[in-house]
Amino acid sequence: MEEFDLVLRNGRVANAGDEFEADVGVRDGVIVAIEKSLMPGKREIDADGRWVLPGGIDSHCHVEQLSAMGMMCADDFYSATVSAAFGGTTTIIPFAAQHRAMKISEVVADYAERARKKAVIDYGFHLILANPDDTALITDLPEAIRNGITSLKVYMTYDRLRLDDHQLLDVLTVAAREQALVMVHAENHDMIRWIVNRLVDRAHTAPKFHAVAHDPIAESEATNRAIALSRLLGVPLLIVHVSGREAIHTIRRAKKHGAAVYAETCPQYLFLTAEDLDRDGMDGAMFCCSPPPRDKDSQEAVWDGIKDGTLPIYSSDHAPYRFDASGKLPKGKATTFKEVANGVPGLELRMPLLFSEGVMKKRISIKEFVALTATNHAEMYGLTGRKGEIAVGADADIGIWNPDREVTVTASKLHDNAGYTPYEGHKIRGWPEVVISRGRIVVENNTLNAERGSGMFLKRNPSDMLRSQVSISAAEARRTLRNLIDVGEKDGRS
Ligand code: DUC
Ligand code: ZN
Ligand code: ZN
Fold it and tell me: So what's the pLDDT on residue 69?
């Protein structure tokens, strides 16, 4: 039998469904054997006392993205993917972000070209759809989906991005027909706008007021509305970056009634609170993201949602901006919370934070950790069979985790380009010491060994979730509404 390129020996393997002791044999970038006592390989790694886990998939991150306000984020495809790799993530799915005047095919080509030259791990794209006009819905969106961009994000807030309910119904209809998953940023635009105006009128402009403006009721209302729209059509959807107890409750209740609604949460909703936005001077701006971190009670609700499957996806929502005039503080100390660039870095620490606080503190099992950080993303975003699992035939994307390694987080040791971390000083137990991407050892001994541009674009399949059942009431609606939709399609319109 042909020799292995790499054998990971004596480790404890965990997948979302099981855990066991075995050696893992890799050839040509693919896992080809999982057994005890494999034959020697050209390269061997002793994983005794370590976890051998699927490489993470971070399905929500912003890389080399120009915000709708015209602000470029701090990481390009090189720094972002290097940072991801050091944190145990071997696949990212960032966004190709349309601004309203842009043509989708050009947006996609632009992001693809930049990633192709720089990424060191594999990547796909979601589309951000800001202008669902006829050209987008009839031609450009279906084309992007056919090219493997099988998910798209839409916004219910932000002046330059938001879609109204009518537009959301149009998008959901086309997505269902073309087999794409719709991801929704669910916050009530007018509630936020109204509060912002009151706050600014009263000169309440410090970073902490960002959390006041983005009230949890704005999140839960929009979440409920997005779910209602998807139920009306019987079309699944995913709510991104869920933060508050009420929104989680709304999603749980809808799922109980059979709605095909999925949801994502992020480290900032487990490990930060709104009090972080109230730090001295402008420091709170480092923690401004939307939705904002909430309170301890919502943190507990997020843990509960993670445990009971209401929140099956745990992503970073890495949106890095430097803490200076090029990013977070365009007007220095005079920057109002409205003007602070929105987002926090998290690609590198996403997995270590959950490993430490979840697995090591026994809030979640190692199998749940794998599901939340890798396997569920593969199922949600059309990567099953290739990514998110230690299985024969899958890509050899693997992290070897030392559960005893202790790390005190500090920005200077991280590899992104934000220049700060919201988790400064946090003590982490458990770290991915060796990270393997398609059989290449990309991180070992705290050193990168990967060429710029060596990551590959992943043309994704449709989400496994699109095949899942919809509620009885939605199915009823579908019988009538699908007819309407089909009639519309006959003359080329949806
Ligand atoms: N939404 C995101 O998904 N990321 C950063 C900011 C935002 O509003
Ligand atoms: Zn968002
Ligand atoms: Zn985001």
Answer: 83
φ, ψ of residue 416 in degrees (nearest 5): -85, 180
- Atom number in ligand 1 closest to CA 241: 3
**Could you tell me the domains of the chain?**
55-384+459-468 (3.20.20.140)
Complete DSSP assignment for 410-468: -GGGS-SSSS--TTTT-EEEEEEEEEEETTEEEEETTEE---TT-S-B--PPPPGGGGS
Tell me the CA distances in angstroms from 198 to 193, 203, 284, one per residue in order.
9, 9, 20
Predicted local distance difference test score (pLDDT) of residue 436: 99
User: Model pTM?
Assistant: 0.96
Q: Is 264 in the pocket of ligand 1 (CB under 6 A)?
A: no
Atom of ligand 1 nearest to the CA of 158: 8
The pLDDT tens digits for 362-375 are 999 999 999 999 99
Rounded distance between C-alpha atoms, residue 308 and residue 265, angstroms: 13
Distance 355 CA to ligand 1 centre (A): 24
Residue 480 pLDDT > 60, yes or no? Answer: no
Ligand 3 midpoint to CA 152 (Å): 12
Nearest CA to ligand 1 atom 8: 290
Q: Give the tokens for residue 324.
A: 């200076």
For ligand 1, mutation pick of 189, 210, 289 (most atoms within 8 Å of CB): 289
Distance between Cα 412 and ligand 1 center (Å): 25
Residue pLDDT, tens place only, 280-319: 999 999 999 999 999 999 999 999 999 999 999 999 999 9
Residue 287 and residue 266 in contact, taking contact as beta carbons nearer than 8 Å: no
246 ligand 1 Cβ < 6 A: no
pLDDT exceeds 90 at position 470? no
Structural contact between residues 309 and 283, judged by C-beta atoms closer than 8 angstroms:
no
Tell me the torsion sign for CA atoms 98, 89, 355, 271.
negative
